[in-house]
Amino acid sequence: MTDNGISRRRLLGTAGATGLALGAAGGAVGYAVAPSAGDGTSDASDTSGTSGTSGSSKAALASLGADEVMFHGKHQSGIITPPQSRGHLIAFDLSPGTGRKEAAALLRRWSAAAERLMAGEPVGSDDTAVARDAGPSSLSVTFGFGASFFSRTGLEKRRPTALEPLPDFSSDHLDKARSNGDLWVQIGANDPLVAFHALRALQKAAAGVARVRWQMNGFNRSPGATAHPMTTRNLMGQVDGTNNPKPADKDFDKRIFVPADGDPAWMAGGSYAVVRRIRMLLDDWEKLGLKEQEAVIGRRKKDGSPLTGGKETTEPELEKTGPDGKVVIPLNAHARISRPDQNGGAAMLRRPFSYHDGFDAHGEPDAGLLFVCWQADPMRGFVPVQRKLDRGDALSEFIRHEASGLFAVPGGAAKGEYVGQRLLEG
């Protein structure tokens, strides 16, 4: 609250216009998310997924702070919420002696804090005031459970079968200290201070119950940074996210969310998040010429269109050959190998952040992708695609998977509930 009892959100005025389709500006998804009832956004008729009314781009840039994502809903926020410009991924391990009761109390505190933070409100009398001058700024907070959480809390019988450890891949160079964890939190916001404020509040709320195992910071293109909404680019300069499944797809929910009659019942409306820290070997990548880079990806760097022609959304002609008799899109091109129709229909919703953690001892950038993908079943979503990429993706020479995690993310909390209540109190 401000000194006179007015919230940060009310102080800014949520009637301000957003005007931009933040899903496209946020980028990794590559489309403007059209919310449906209970998806964690504030207005099912607003294709930005945030509060506010239409206006000019200039007005939208001035009112980004007023955009609000709803905490309560059928699904947790941060899954189909348009990707934000700043993100934090954090894994926690429960402290020794912590059990189911203490874990439930923590999720109750975290949920209450997230609801207030996402509304642009301070979390309590000990609020740090870091975000005092900002509105909600499209803040979303997402909570998940790692496989180890269930054994630590005596809930082994309630652990989903889909939470089996991911298989080993030949491209893995995993740091176990930065992988997995009992609990996982994803934070996204369109203001860095708002995102950090949420990170700090949740870390403080976990004191004595859970300690940080690892934490990673990421970013995306800011809404309004381009002349018109468009798919973002990754740190290799490539348009990234063109073939993501879209909420308008008839089988979107089936692919991304656990059904109401799914197993286990407490995961209804939830999803599974695969998290991978993928370092891009940018020095090696940038030694390639433009045509070589495009051959590795299978798409034009300029606009993301397939090498066979058209625009970004044009279906590539995988059998098309050039004057030399060779297929135009190489057999090991990333765009070819990762296509759902090349992987038995396997699909996942990619919602990553880029990262840059300085330079290593050799002066090479420690930068790349904080890959986060969502699916109803990782063994049918992520695993088949990664296995295919592992066997012959041309891009593999220029990336290194350095950390990994798999988390069960339950459905959203109804009014009066906290996230995970159906697991912890069921």
Automatic annotation (TrEMBL):
Belongs to the DyP-type peroxidase family. It catalyses: heme b + 2 H(+) = protoporphyrin IX + Fe(2+). Involved in the recovery of exogenous heme iron. Extracts iron from heme while preserving the protoporphyrin ring intact. The keyword Nucleotide-binding does not apply. Its EC number is 1.11.1.-. NCBIfam families: Dyp_perox_fam (TIGR01413), tat_substr_1 (TIGR01412). It is found in: Cell envelope. It is an enzyme of class 1 (oxidoreductase). The keyword Metal-binding applies. Residues 36-59, 299-324 are annotated as: Disordered. Residues 76-220 form the Dyp-type peroxidase N-terminal domain. It comes from Streptomyces huasconensis. Keywords: Heme, Iron, Lyase, Metal-binding, Oxidoreductase, Peroxidase, Signal. Binds 1 heme b (iron(II)-protoporphyrin IX) group non-covalently per subunit. Residues 231-413 form the Dyp-type peroxidase C-terminal domain. Residues 312-323 have a biased composition (Basic and acidic residues). Its cofactor is heme b. This is Deferrochelatase. The gene is efeB.
